[in-house]
Amino acid sequence: MSPYTTSYTNKRRPRLRPARTRSLELPATKRRHQRKPGERYITRGLTKKRSTHRGFRRNERKPYAIIAVLCAFLIFVASVVWYANRGVTITLNGNDTTVRLHSTIERIVEDKKLKLKPGRLLAVDDAVLSKGGGEPYHVTLNKKELTVQEAAKLELNGGEELEIQQGHDTYEPHQVQATELKPSISMEGKGAIQYVATWGVSGRHEVWIGETSGKTQDRGVVQEPVHAVIKATSVNPKKGKKLIALTFDEGPSIGTADIVRILADKGAKGTFFLQGSAVGSNLSAVQSILSGNNQLGSNAQDDVDLTKLGYDDLRAQLSQGFAAIQKAGGGTVSLLRPPSGLYTVETWAQSMDLVQAVVTWNLDSGDWMLKGADTVVSTVVEASSNGNIVLLTDNVATTQQTAAALPHIIDQLKAAGYELVTLSELIESDEDLSRELKLGQAHMPDGASLPEVTKASESTSAVE
Question: How much is the pTM?
């Protein structure tokens, strides 16, 4: 009988697999793995080749990790869905309410169960084509009425003030034959300063041709024109101020530098209205005028009666005169002293987008009559009053006489308590005028248009 006492052979000592967690095993467990001395042990297999492959051990933690990841993902997706569809507060028809984020008008009407009656579809002559074919509802967002197309694109983000009311009546698709109604122009008041008080805006007359009904309907004036108003006024300086503006026409000339020097020496300022045709040959005079803190304006391009010119020639005279000053380094100017002070309502109607203010005078020195410097001095000093705009001439014929009279004019006016200022400073001293006339670059506002002269406005002529 074979001397085996166990199921294991002793020919080769079996190699025991080390426990994975020895530190956690009980002592009795460890003893079971120990071999008894002198005993024979049979190997686990009867094959000669011993397999060295260790069996696969299942990872019991992996399913739990997968479940945790899936739960986290589902929570994330749920959070995104909740955030994208969260409720926001709006004011609907005067009451606070909660709606879904990015709700449309259709969604609000459905969710809030609003009972809205659509408007009617009308023909161009107001006959009813369909009782429910008009606007489905009328929407006002933050006090602004929306079209049907705008309302259809609206998505709410919260905080809006929304009104959804019964639908309005709408007209059938139609073609429009429109006629522009030009504004007219008038002049109000009297004085040496003229400016645009009200810009003209064209009106509109329409005839509709219905595409469904085939009817033609005169809808009349759908937009009334706004008529232009030119205001003429004098300057009333603030209480306690005595101001006079000395102005010089038809320059620059060979004597302009002398006039500028006299003004500087006497602590006075002036306003020079330059002719564009004279600027090119006296470029240094422009800088001399500005260096003395004086003001520039235009006397047009040439010494011509602007009221006798057609539309194109008039605008050329004005544009070229302003451009000559700017080219000489005088900057952008928009004050105009028309030659001989002539500027009618019709002239204004053709040029109000080019000129900000027309400045004539209310005290003529008469120096252009060449009666001598003493006569010029007495004329100005004896007739002066607060807010006066004095006309002096700076052309080749008069400049020497003007330069001779100027020191005496300044001295005597100062002795009478007057301060001699630029036109801008004079205008600024009048609280009412300075609010209405902000001197700067002339421009026509958006939507405005040049007016046309009617028989009622043709009687207005130059203001002296």
Answer: 0.72
Rg (alpha carbons) of the chain, rounded to whole number: 48
pLDDT tens-digit series, residues 380-389? 999 999 999 9
Q: Bridge-partner residues for 229, per DSSP?
A: 186, 198
User: What are the CA-CA distances from residue 23 to residues 27, 29, 218, 345 (Å)?
Assistant: 10, 11, 105, 112
Strand duo 270-274 + 243-251: pairing: parallel
Extents of the domains making up the chain: 87-171, 174-186+198-230, 233-436
CATH number, span 233-436: 3.20.20.370
**345-364 burial: b if 16+ Cβ within 10 Å, else e:** bbbbbbbbbbbbbbbbbbbb
Letter for the amino acid at 460?
Answer: T
Half-sphere exposure of 337 (CA within 13 A, CB side): 27
Summarised one tens digit per residue, pLDDT across range 351-366 is 999 999 999 999 999 9
d(CA 68, CA 176): 68
The average confidence (pLDDT) of the chain is 88
Residues comprising the chain, all counted: 464
The band of 87, judged by pLDDT with boundaries at 50, 70 and 90, is: confident
The pLDDT of residue 84? 59
Question: Which residues have a Cβ under 8 Å from the Cβ of 350 and sit 6 or more positions away?
Answer: 311, 314, 315, 450
Q: How far apart are CA 296 and CA 289, in angstroms?
A: 8
**Superfamily (CATH H level) for 87-171:** Beta-grasp domain (3.10.20.30)
- What gap in Å lies between CA 40 and CA 216, rounded to an integer? 122
Cβ atoms of residues 129 and 214 within 8 Å: no
